[in-house]
Fold these 3 entries.
Entry 1:
Amino acid sequence: MPAKSEQSASTHAVLELDRFLPYRLSVLSNRISQDIAQLYAARFALSVTEWRVLAVLGRYPDLSANEVAERTAMDKVTVSRAAQGLLKRRLVERASHEADGRSHRLSLSQEGARLHGEIAPLALAYEAALLSGLAPGEVTAMKLLLKRLEAAAIRLSGEGAD
């Protein structure tokens, strides 16, 4: 008969990290972010967070910090700090929100748009290199699966419930 501690251990699920999808996605995301951070920091003096804010505003101008946080799934405080750094460097401009005097709208300055235009091709080249070992159908399938997983994560977190 097994000892009591052996019994309780055998009845609990074993979490094998190498097979646990959230862990694997987190590790992959961290590796990619570190690679990109080295490029952006060395060449453009930007943190990954600052680049994400810059990229979002390059695609979706005139957003509040809350809206940037929603689009990036980053903490609002983290987004606000990144935005402050970009404002100090005059890469982002801030305007009062017409409907809500307490919040502000963010958009790229002329210099921010120029920098975005310089970095975007490098980001796309990194993505192409990352995906180069996959067949086009695999890339399409992976993007579809990521979209579905993101939707499931939003449902599980209760964010999508209105």
Entry 2:
Amino acid sequence: MAMEQLPHVDEHDVATVASRDAAWESVLRTLSRTMGGAPRFARVLGCDPSGASGRFDGSVGQTLPGFRVVDAEPGRHITLEGRHRFARYRLTIHLDGDRVRARTDAAFPGLLGRLYRAAVIGSGAHGAITRRMLRQMAAPAARRHRRARSDRAG
């Protein structure tokens, strides 16, 4: 599937000690929990898609409020895209060795789009939210990894 060219916004990453499988489970759980609870916000912004498609396992075509999975390679990466009144956007999460990385690409057309970009990106809110989401992805995976190692040793 050819993805729309969108300008690069930012990229953030965080270390993880988890196995690839544990990290992937944590990525999916965090995306579902973080974005799955925002249908009202998605409707206010006029997001497409505005709702979730049900149980989220990261399969292409599944939706969360404001996002549709457009590409996924389990254990490696997941790419979500969406749009609303003020922006078209893409979020790609990569599992890259001992790092979980999030890349955001987005276009903010028109005056309202530029104002929205200033409010969300320029204020630092987007970066803070993305870094928090990455820490949430890394922390549970790391805890499961440590428990599994201690169970094997004990």
Entry 3:
Amino acid sequence: MTRQVDARGLPCPHPVINTRKALRDIEEGSITVLVDRPDSSENVQRFARSQGCDVAATERDGVFHLEIVKHQAVQSDARATSQVVLIGTDQLGTGDAVLGKKLLKSFLNTMCDAEPKPVKMFFLNEGVRLTTEGSEVLDALEALENKGVEILSCGTCLEHYDLVERLEVGLVTNMYDIVDSLLSGDNVISI
């Protein structure tokens, strides 16, 4: 029998948290997660896949049905080693804003050529402006994404600044994913 997790109407990051709890409760098998927001659907799918699960998603009448299959060999709390970058502003350093924006652009362009690359880059608060329409660093972020770096913008922050529809690069994420990645990262760089 498939267990069902009804996460409709729950704010971010509760759909992911409830999915994690349900996957921890089973050694193997499947669960069905119901969500009513596209960003919740994407966040739950990304989380389940990060845990080695198979995911099939369908949408009916505004409700996303996520069929998640956990295999016995998969450990639900496996953590990969990683370097994570957290960017919470649209400039580097304090002081002159024009200089700060120039320095951040240089930082991101330099990161394109540097090794090793971070596994994930999270953008939150004013940092989400960097991943949206009109940003002067979109080319650098697209280049990083093309080189395998996950570019992730906080959904709550995008909503706060009314930028959800203006996202140009990367995916929308949630606080659970941010916290989980920061706690499991080998090295966290915060800007």
